[in-house]
Amino acid sequence: MAPEDHEGATSLLQSFERRFLAARALPSFPWQSLEEKLREPSGSELLLAILQKTVKHPVCVQHGPSLKYSRCFLSKLIKKPSGDSVTLSESTAIVSHGTTGLVTWDAALYLAEWAIENPAAFTDRTILELGSGAGLTGLAICKACYPRAYVFSDCHAQVLEQLRRNVLLNGFSLELHTPIDSGSPKVTVAQLDWDEVTSSQLSAFQADTVIAADVLYCGEVTLSLVRVLKMLTDCQRKKAPDVYVAYTIRSQDTGKLFITELDRAGIHWEEVAPHTGKLFPYEEHSAIVILKLTLTGRHGV
Ligand SMILES: C[S@@+](CC[C@H](N)C(=O)[O-])C[C@H]1O[C@@H](n2cnc3c(N)ncnc32)[C@H](O)[C@@H]1O
Fold first, then answer.
1. Domains identified in the chain, total number
2. Which residues form the domain of 14?
3. Would 112 be classed as within a structural domain?
4. Longest pairwise C-alpha distance within the chain
5. 114 and 243 fall within a common domain
6. Which of 104, 113, 219, 288 lies 20 to 30 Å from 280, alpha-carbon distance?
């Protein structure tokens, strides 16, 4: 191991040891740095060293944290070297039961990849997803980006039913009170129709980040979405959320109405830089963009 690599591993090890001995909340552990280190050839040695300095530490063997805390810690730790996966139950038809939400769209995969490469936009935050569909993006974010809370939402009864199934299938619980030290975000599935939702319903989420994938597929839906974004601008008790909207450009007109309406509403937008890692299978040639919206200020680009 090169000296600088050794130094990095030692400080990571210390960080795990200190946090574990102090029984700190699991999301506060440097999981992201660990994931990077585990990609190196000496990854398995580091994993063993972490075990020795945490659950097998002499102090912990005698006066360790609760069994539940140790179990949650271990289950997070053992997931790391193998990498995480998302399991989905979804339809094979593009439209079924009168909705496009029972199948995963390319923009959802693209947004998930971007999120995995940019976890800071989600870590320790409350995320509200609009039009979640089958739930792929949110599940990937819940597994890889350590949000504090994640609200999946959609308007369609069957989509919501499938979403709940997929959340459970991936090991998350839908209990109202997920223990803080469980290391898992508090996950909720909410019925939220953009044509009916009120300011107070939106305000109750107090989202730090709002995301949506492939929700600009017709003019009517686009206008409804912009209505929700305008409501979000006004109803926050704290800072307005950061918003990321991903969509596939299917024709020259895709996105044009959205941008016109954003400009009209004084919502600033910018295209985010594309990510580099490709993790999911989707049409390589489809043009997909992610817009970052700032819900305050009037400087449309
Ligand atoms: C094309 S699907 C995209 C699903 C998922 N985000 C993805 O990319 O795989 C559009 C989703 O938006 C939801 N949707 C459409 N209109 C809506 C509205 N007015 N309120 C809430 N959700 C809506 C649909 O039910 C559907 O799940």
1. 2
2. 3-82
3. yes
4. 66
5. yes
6. 219
